[in-house]
């Protein structure tokens, strides 16, 4: 245990920011330890006379041996000069060593007793050491921290944008005829008369305690609204993702294997068209073709009816499939040009074996990253698709509320989507760290 | 050349591509001819069938005779010449292929000139559709006639540039004249003319060999990739048509209500029909081209500059600066571009300026990341160390030595991002956010049409096709630029 802590301690001394955190977290331990060190350890008199004599004796034999080796007559004067010079040098380094607080602290950490005694005030510090003693744990921890930070920043950014808006929700809801008293009343009711920082802290507090307030118009509970609308968006996004992966990855693989063939060109052409179609137009054309002309599928979403989800899922998944297919192809092609593939070919492996054993395992990791990144873009596009198919999801909620602007609702909607994206990216990054041997080895170094 | 090698040749692939697309359009026009039973569609589909057949024959002969016109028999040359005239039936694919096949050794100037000619023909044809309108603008006839004569002149220039021009003195004078001519006629909005005059300058006027080599490397790849040239061509056609529309299209047809012409079917007078206010959708789409393009380009250029600068600074200077900048951008990156734009527009009101700002802010992190990654690589190179050793200032090193060498991936990103920006703009207009409803931006035109999906679907189909065409063109061009700039390909 102590060795792990000491390793973590060493890591924490490597960077300025980490050293700062290490001081901050351990301030309760560091202050007494520093004081003790300052007055006791540093002032320790340099008394080791016995040791000095031992050292002189050692230096004497050292000098004699050197003279013997060079076949020269020992000179008493030279000998004294040599001894005093070496001794001064050793003393100096010794002094430097002794002056170092971090070494002193490391010695403290070595004793189990010390740790047990200071466990209560130093708990955070020891946890910090423990997290930093191993690369992977550190990576996961820092990634989690970054996610939390990003989510908070999103809240701050979106709130600040809406706070400084020249639009006036009071006027938009109450109308032009509202008296000054009515408007004042409205503003006190929603805390709009408070200064910026009070409102911001209230919002942040609200997000932590899951109290998102009520909408300005209709006085609805925002959390309840989001709870009702979140599952649809999530289902839509998830199904689109599954569809996209199921279609795009095989297409990308086929295109990469049969590169520059007719199939490759056709698939990539179709993918490029898929990338270029605006989703709302695609939705309209689908409604026109499958609902109006052919009367096969319902044109709007009906909760509980799976058939009505088919068109939105395809529309939302098109752009994603196109990107994934293109990325899959280029990643595999890139891997196929690596040296180890040439080696595998030279060894006489069959093409199929090269592909399944050497190319795929190396290509799929970047593909995973791309999928994670594209997921976010798809969620943004969900608002448009939801409007086209009249789905009561999170995206259309934001669009509906932006005309007032209904600050609690927009803020909550955007933040929840950002949370979803951050969590997906987090999962992708962690998977990446766990499954990529190269990164894992790098982290553990 | 053995047949196998010919089949892998750029020209042969171009021909195949043209054949497939020509066949697809043949089927499409046949379908229209059967369902609509009109003379025009029947004629067009017959022409396309004929062209596809010739294309097929031509491809077969290519395998036998090789890809260079010097090896061709007389019959192949006649076929090629026939395919050149397929341009006048609207078959760009076979026409561009035939033009390419007519030159023995491909020069950049010749390729540009042929595409300029194709753009001219389309500009004339699409402008001339106004003849069927009740009345035209005062300047319409003059401009149409000058455009036609310009097309004829360009046709002659194709012939002039077909032979590789040598560097004799009289030629240099002529080339100078040609450059001036191209610069002036670039006022029609045909950006290809500017590109061509730049090429002519680089190749025949200036004498620096290394510059010529450098520009050759990039432009040769672009001009040989038929998809990126096709993309460039469509962008140029849309832009110049829209650019010239101030003089050639009657503005009131596009923006003023006319209750005599409510919701008319597509016809020669109104090629895309009319909307619920009696406005001519074709005029609106043409007018809106410049607006959509400008917004798309602006919302790419602004974040490219800001994000590029931020990325460069955070990549080059102290890690503390880097961390601060990148963490803030991380937060922006977590919000999808469209949602951020909705939030900004919700806060500051929906108009075009706010839309451009909103979409730009959302794209900053992407450009910053790209730039930062490149700067991180380049700053470790030896020539940077050398310039530091001779005592150059940090800012000078960054913006004179590092940034210019880190631009290639940024340009690739930007070309692909314009398409995304066009889609985002029209999506937001479709939601009723962003561009003011009366402005004929493509998303707005589509939004009006979407209300009449059941009865008048063409109102939504045509503007949507325009958007797809523009975005597809930018994606084609972007792919071409990426292939040309990618160091791995070189």
UniProtKB/TrEMBL annotation, chain A:
One of its GO terms (biological process) is transmembrane transport. Gene3D superfamilies: MetI-like. It is a multi-pass membrane protein. GO terms for cellular component: plasma membrane. Its main location: membrane. It is found in: Cell membrane. PANTHER family: INNER MEMBRANE ABC TRANSPORTER, OLIGOPEPTIDE TRANSPORT SYSTEM PERMEASE PROTEIN APPB. Belongs to the binding-protein-dependent transport system permease family. This is Membrane protein. It comes from Halolactibacillus halophilus.
From TrEMBL, chain B:
It holds the Pfam family BPD_transp_1. The chain crosses the membrane at residues 17-34, 40-59, 80-100, 112-132, 139-161, 173-196, 230-250, 290-317, 329-349, 410-433, 458-478. Its main location: membrane. PROSITE patterns: ABC_TM1 (PS50928). CDD domains: TM_PBP2. It is a multi-pass membrane protein. Residues 289-478 form the ABC transmembrane type-1 domain. GO terms for cellular component: plasma membrane. The keyword Transport applies. Keywords: Cell membrane, Membrane, Transmembrane, Transmembrane helix, Transport. One of its GO terms (biological process) is transmembrane transport. It is found in: Cell membrane. PANTHER family: D,D-DIPEPTIDE TRANSPORT SYSTEM PERMEASE PROTEIN DDPC-RELATED, OLIGOPEPTIDE TRANSPORT SYSTEM PERMEASE PROTEIN APPC. This is Peptide ABC transporter permease. The lineage of its organism: Bacteria, Bacillati, Bacillota, Bacilli, Bacillales.
């Amino acid at each position: 245990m102590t060795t792990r802590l000491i390793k973590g301690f060493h890591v924490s001394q490597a960077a300025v920011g980490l050293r700062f955190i290490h001081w901050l977290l351990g301030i309760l331990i560091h202050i007494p330890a520093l004081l003790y060190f300052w007055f006791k350890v540093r002032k320790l008199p340099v008394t080791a006379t016995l040791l000095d004599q031992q050292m002189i004796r050692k230096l004497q034999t050292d000098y004699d041996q050197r003279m013997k080796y060079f076949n020269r007559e020992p000179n008493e004067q030279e000998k004294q000069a040599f001894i005093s010079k070496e001794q001064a040098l050793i003393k100096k380094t010794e002094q430097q060593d002794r002056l170092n607080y971090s070494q002193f602290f490391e010695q403290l950490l070595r004793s189990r007793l010390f740790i047990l005694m200071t466990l209560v005030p130093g708990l955070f510090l020891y946890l910090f050491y423990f997290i930093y003693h191993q690369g992977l744990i550190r990576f996961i921890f820092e990634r989690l921290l970054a996610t939390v930070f990003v989510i908070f920043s999103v809240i701050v950014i979106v709130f600040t944008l809406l706070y400084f808006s020249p639009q006036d929700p009071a006027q938009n809801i109450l109308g032009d005829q509202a008296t000054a008293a009515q408007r004042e009343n409205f503003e006190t009711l929603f805390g709009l008369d408070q200064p910026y920082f009070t409102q911001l802290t209230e919002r942040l507090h609200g997000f932590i305690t899951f109290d998102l307030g009520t909408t300005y118009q209709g006085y609805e509970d925002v959390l309840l609204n989001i709870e009702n609308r979140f599952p649809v968006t999530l289902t839509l996004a998830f199904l689109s993702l599954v569809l996209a992966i199921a279609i795009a990855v095989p297409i990308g693989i086929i295109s990469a294997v049969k590169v520059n063939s007719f199939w490759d060109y056709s698939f990539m052409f179709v993918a490029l068209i898929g990338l270029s179609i605006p989703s709302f137009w695609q939705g309209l054309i689908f409604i026109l073709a499958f609902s109006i002309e052919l009367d096969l599928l319902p044109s709007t979403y009906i909760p509980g009816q799976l058939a009505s989800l088919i068109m939105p899922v395809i529309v939302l998944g098109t752009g994603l499939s196109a990107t994934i297919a293109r990325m899959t192809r280029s990643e595999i092609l890139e891997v196929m040009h690596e040296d180890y593939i040439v080696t595998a070919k030279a060894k006489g492996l069959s093409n199929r074996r090269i592909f399944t054993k050497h190319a795929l395992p190396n290509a799929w990791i970047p593909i995973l990253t791309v999928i994670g990144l594209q997921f976010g873009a798809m969620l943004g596009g969900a608002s448009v698709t939801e409007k086209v198919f009249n789905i009561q999801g999170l995206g259309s909620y934001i669009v509906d509320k932006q005309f007032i602007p209904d600050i609690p609702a927009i803020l909550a909607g955007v933040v929840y989507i950002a949370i979803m994206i951050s969590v997906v990216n987090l999962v992708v990054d962690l998977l990446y760290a766990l499954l990529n041997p190269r990164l894992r080895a790098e982290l553990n170094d | 050349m053995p047949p196998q090698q010919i089949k892998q040749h750029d020209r042969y692939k171009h021909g195949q591509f043209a054949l497939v697309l020509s066949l697809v359009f043949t089927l499409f026009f046949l379908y229209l001819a059967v369902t609509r039973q009109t003379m025009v569609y029947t004629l067009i589909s017959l022409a396309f069938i004929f062209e596809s057949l010739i294309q097929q024959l031509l491809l077969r002969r290519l395998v036998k005779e090789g890809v260079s016109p010097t090896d061709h028999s007389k019959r192949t040359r006649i076929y090629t010449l026939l395919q050149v005239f397929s341009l006048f039936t609207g078959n760009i694919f076979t026409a561009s292929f035939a033009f390419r096949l007519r030159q023995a050794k491909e020069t950049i100037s010749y390729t540009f000139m042929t595409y300029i000619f194709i753009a001219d023909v389309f500009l004339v044809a699409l402008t001339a559709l106004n003849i069927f309108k009740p009345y035209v603008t005062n300047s319409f006839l003059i401009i149409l006639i000058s455009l036609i004569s310009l097309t004829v002149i360009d046709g002659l220039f194709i012939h002039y540039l077909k032979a590789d021009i040598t560097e004799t003195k009289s030629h240099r004078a002529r080339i100078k004249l040609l450059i001036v001519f191209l610069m002036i006629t670039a006022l029609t909005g045909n950006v290809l003319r500017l590109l061509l005059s730049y090429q002519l300058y680089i190749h025949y006027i200036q004498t620096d060999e290394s510059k010529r080599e450098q520009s050759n490397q990039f432009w040769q790849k672009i001009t040989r990739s038929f998809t990126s040239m096709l993309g460039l061509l469509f962008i140029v056609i849309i832009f110049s048509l829209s650019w010239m529309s101030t003089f050639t299209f009657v503005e009131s047809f596009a923006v003023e209500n006319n209750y005599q012409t409510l919701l008319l079917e597509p016809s020669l007078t109104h090629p895309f029909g009319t909307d619920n206010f009696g406005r001519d959708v074709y005029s609106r789409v043409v007018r809106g081209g410049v607006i959509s393009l400008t917004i798309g380009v602006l919302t790419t250029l602004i974040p490219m500059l800001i994000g590029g600068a931020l990325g460069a600074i955070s990549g080059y200077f102290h890690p503390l600066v880097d961390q601060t900048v990148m963490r803030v951008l991380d937060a922006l990156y977590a919000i999808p571009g469209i949602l951020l734009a909705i939030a900004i527009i919700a806060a500051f009101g929906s108009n075009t300026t706010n839309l451009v700002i909103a979409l730009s802010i959302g794209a900053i992190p992407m450009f910053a990341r790209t730039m930062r990654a490149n700067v991180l690589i380049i700053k470790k190179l030896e020539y940077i160390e050398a310039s530091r050793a001779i005592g150059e200032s940090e800012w000078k090193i960054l913006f004179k030595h590092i940034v210019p060498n880190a631009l290639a991936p940024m340009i690739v990103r930007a070309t692909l991002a314009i398409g995304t920006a066009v889609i985002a703009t029209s999506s937001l207009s479709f939601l009723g956010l962003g561009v003011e409803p009366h402005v004929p931006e493509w998303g707005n035109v589509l939004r009006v049409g979407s209300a009449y999906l059941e009865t008048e679907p063409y109102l939504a189909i045509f503007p949507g096709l325009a958007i797809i065409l523009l975005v597809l063109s930018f994606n084609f061009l972007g792919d071409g630029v990426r292939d040309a700039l990618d160091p791995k390909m070189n």
